[in-house]
Write a structure and sequence with these properties.
single chain; alpha/beta; Rossmann fold; 9 helices; 7 strands; 45% helix; binds S-adenosylmethionine
Length: 252
């Protein structure tokens, strides 16, 4: 190890310590913290595979459409592990996405899983963090264009997730896969999680985005507080497949 590598360890350790403290402040269950450590180690050990998955996803999606943001490609290493574990590449998969933006995660799912169908729920108006940035302008039109190749396997619900859950009569255990990536305000994340979980089939997978994201100054307003509360409420009903920037839960 040379001096530059040695000097880089200090800030990395500080960063890790801050995450541990943040998880503690958001009431992380011990099992979720253990999953965080396992996921972190997996990323370190398979770093080449992680970067390959990220670049391949970014390149493929740029062929499929036109995107102004990429909050997604870094997650494909863990998503691909889930798809392989569940052998979803050659099976029909019913998916629900709460929060689709301009369709990057939606297009990845529909492109990677050729037999999947997706119900995408979004206001297409943006979230708190996009207010006054102009970023949300034209997102629905971009979503439509970016997912056009998959139109036969895609349905949209335009509106708030609360109204989706309140008005759509879906039988319980309707979905194999649920992605929660809409409002990141903790109360909203918790409501989405509690309403979505009964819709997930046993053995199905639910992913929460931005588990470690800290946009609201008060830790208990951020997604980790909601996800940790959800994990405590549903203890025994799931297995944790990964915990990092995303929390990945498999229903028992
Ligand atoms: C972070 S973006 C989703 C990103 C997308 N999954 C991706 O990977 O590219 C969050 C989306 O949630 C939507 N949203 C925010 N609050 C919502 C709510 N209460 N109900 C439905 N959608 C909401 C926003 O309009 C925005 O498109």
């Amino acid at each position: 190890m040379n001096m530059t590598q040695l000097a880089a360890i200090g800030p990395k350790l500080r960063h890790e310590f801050k995450i541990v403290y943040y998880l503690y402040k958001t009431d992380v269950p011990f099992g979720a913290y253990a999953a965080y450590v396992r996921t972190r180690l997996r990323k370190l050990i398979h770093y080449r595979e992680f970067t390959r998955a990220r670049s391949a996803a970014a390149a493929r999606l740029n062929q499929l459409g036109s995107f102004t943001t990429d909050w997604f490609s870094a997650h494909t290493f863990e998503w691909n592990r889930v798809f392989a574990r569940k052998q979803w590449r050659d099976r029909p998969v019913a998916a629900l996405e709460i929060g689709s933006w301009e369709g990057r995660s939606s297009a990845y799912l529909l492109d990677t899983l050729p037999q999947a169908s997706l119900l995408a729920v979004d206001t297409w108006e943006g979230s708190d963090e996009h207010a006054d940035t102009g970023m949300a302008t034209g997102i629905e039109a971009r979503f439509d264009a970016n997912t056009r190749a998959f139109a036969s396997r895609l349905k949209k619900y335009k509106g708030r997730s609360f109204s989706f859950f309140a008005t759509q009569t879906l039988p319980s255990a309707s979905f194999d896969f649920i992605y929660i990536d809409a409002s990141h305000y903790a109360d909203d994340v918790l409501c989405d999680a509690l309403k979505a979980f009964p819709l997930l089939k046993p053995g199905g997978v639910m992913i929460f985005d931005d588990y470690l994201w800290q946009w609201y100054p008060e830790p208990r307003h951020n997604p980790a507080a909601a996800v940790n509360a959800f994990l405590r409420l549903k203890r025994g009903e799931y297995r944790l497949l990964a915990a990092g920037d995303q929390m990945i839960v498999e229903k028992r």
